[in-house]
Specification:
The protein is mainly α and 70 residues long. The chain is 67% helix and 0% strand. It has one domain. It has three helices and no strands. Helix 1 packs antiparallel against helix 2. It comes from Helicobacter equorum. This is Core-binding (CB) domain-containing protein.
Length: 70
């Protein structure tokens, strides 16, 4: 799978789907899966506000810190 295809939101949604397909096959607890899902959905929502400035390739610690403050 290519790292990027379009904007960061679409790329994150694509990677989220692949991640949860793999993750759910590893017999994780439902609460763990739900928590990961919530955090990833919040990051995707945050990414909507920076999608003109950030790509998957340019995510760095400043982007993560700003997400945590979001």
């Amino acid at each position: 799978m290519e790292l990027t295809n379009s904007n960061i939101v679409e790329d994150l949604k694509r990677w989220e789907k692949a991640f949860f397909t793999e993750f759910s096959q590893k017999n994780r607890l439902e609460n763990t899966i739900a928590q990961y899902h919530r955090v990833i959905e919040r990051f995707i929502e945050y990414s909507r506000s920076v999608q003109d400035e950030v790509t998957l390739k340019t995510i760095n610690s400043l982007v993560i810190v700003n997400f945590l403050l979001f």
